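fyi for ur records
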Amino acid sequence: MSLSRSNPCTSSSSRTSPRGTSFRRRTWPRYSVVYVSFGTLTSFSLAEHREIARGLDLSGKNFVWVLSGSDDDRSEWMPEGFAELTGNNDRGFLIQGWAPRALIPSQPAVSAGVPMVTWPRYADQFYNEKLVVDVLKVGVSVGAKDYASSMETHEVISGEVIAGSITRLMGGSLESDNIRKKAEELRVKARTAVETGGGSYNDVGRLMDELMAGRSAVRGNANLHGSDSSPAIPIDISVVPFPDVGLPPGFENVRYITQSHGPEYYGKFLHAGLLLREPFDQFLADSRPRVDAVVTDSFFTWSQDAAAAHGVPRLVFLGISVFARCCSESTLRNNPLEACPDDDEDPDAFVLLPGLPHRVELRRRQILDHGKRPLEWEFYESASAADQRSFGEVFNSFHELEPDYVEHFHATLGRRAWLVGPVALATDSRDVAATGGISTDGVADICLRWLDTKLAGSVVYVSFGTLTTFLPAELVEIARGLDLSGKNFLWVISGTESSEWMPQGFAELLARGDRGFVIRGWAPQTLILKHLALGGFVTHCGWNSVLEAVSAGVPMVTWPRYGDQFHNEKLVVEVLKVGVNVGARDSAAAIDTHEVIGGEVISASIKRLMDDSEESNAMRKKIQELRTMATKALEKGGSSYNDVGRVMDELMARRSCKSVEENVRAS
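which gave:
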């Protein structure tokens, strides 16, 4: 039997766990184990943990309990005797973190077709509970009543109630026998549904048939800008397996590699990128009709030669601003640190990047040092050389945002570019979750309802992207800064479920809910930024975040951490003049240690941006002007609209010329 947060669409990772295999070796009797898991987004207070432990003990049932978050504080909530109960593994088994969810319910001790004790926490989980308990009748409710987001305080359900629900489900009564029988019937129906001729099998076929029919109808009638009068261009997806380089499953994304994994994991990850050339070559060779162009990341330096070998033009896309691209090229072409005096090793000394339309200075520590990082310098040089041989470069930007640097890129650097953004404005207003398809509509609805209660321009939004992590000491100062600022705030925290770092009084400030709201994990950023309550955005200056802020008309407090983020800060603060900097100085990888910026400094930056002053009013006026320009750039006749047309026209003309050449050769 399973104790669940009532989400029937949970997914399981393919990673293996030593503890998972240890569970498989248990010899508990059939139907004797209760499995307890609340997913990856749900958190519990210490008091709730204590009552769950008491309930499992009082139930008298064997149990497997998956705990998420830190395991450092177990002693704070474990009731007397519980450590001994789980320590010898005769009745209880604890898993810290990830668990093989799909494997555990299929073990004989738990069985497939598992009935449920339902314990919803928020969003659609309460609907799912109704389906499980009232409609399907394959579960019993633990009696959860309060609807709140995963980070808010819930009513504490006592151990006696929890034990009673478990006993009711597993106690061998007529009710529990009927529930188990119905769950087993649904298990059989679920398996039948995905077999040949099953309901889900047939629905997949029907969907694909309709999509293929639509594809046939539109082929040859493509409209470059997707106007309302023409159907959409069909999209095919070819999946390439991640190369086997000795990385565990789940490490196909660099965001999951931390400092604790060491340089070996980074080396393997980079090697995997090189091994992608073979399937890329094969794709180009096998594609019918022939590929007209490829768009690849600048980091895939081999893709230019691979595309050229098949006679296919390569377009570069790096996901950064034209300004940052020009700054990087200035660094590679001029090596400005070489011109610094030999005796000047001050990491905070400002160094001029020569040859740019504006005077742009960065600190020594923010510039790639050829002498200290020769291999990285060599890689960027080879990437730049490959990019210069390419057909051109595509940017998620628009001409009116950085016109001097578009001209510099064309005229001075001699490079071809097409600006086709902001792409966030060209998509539906609903964000696609960065969590691999996990539904987060509940979080979106809750935070947007909270914003609805705030005055226009009164909330500062704090988010540092998916790759940035902070030390506990840094989180403390951010919390202090938000408190000291006196502003309403919405803060997205990634990378930690712990609240131990919170300064005194901050948890109480959040609990009141009047001034502060915290989201852990993914947040609907474009929806938040578009909300009228937003008055400022504390950002790491990742280009997507900067462009989304510009598109929404929200001025910024800039807090770059590494890479092109320091270039983007210069663009926002010194060129566009739509933000103030928090004073970040050190450039380091996302996993490295950064200088701790005091709460007083953070508070002062937020106030400078959002208080009523001549400077802040000028920034708000300028960002609104840019927002209007961003919208017009995508409209018919706008700069980005026209650039999309130009690049498509060039590629279509190239295809026509190639067809003529082939016909001449054939004749």
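The chain has a mean pLDDT of 84. thats all i got for now
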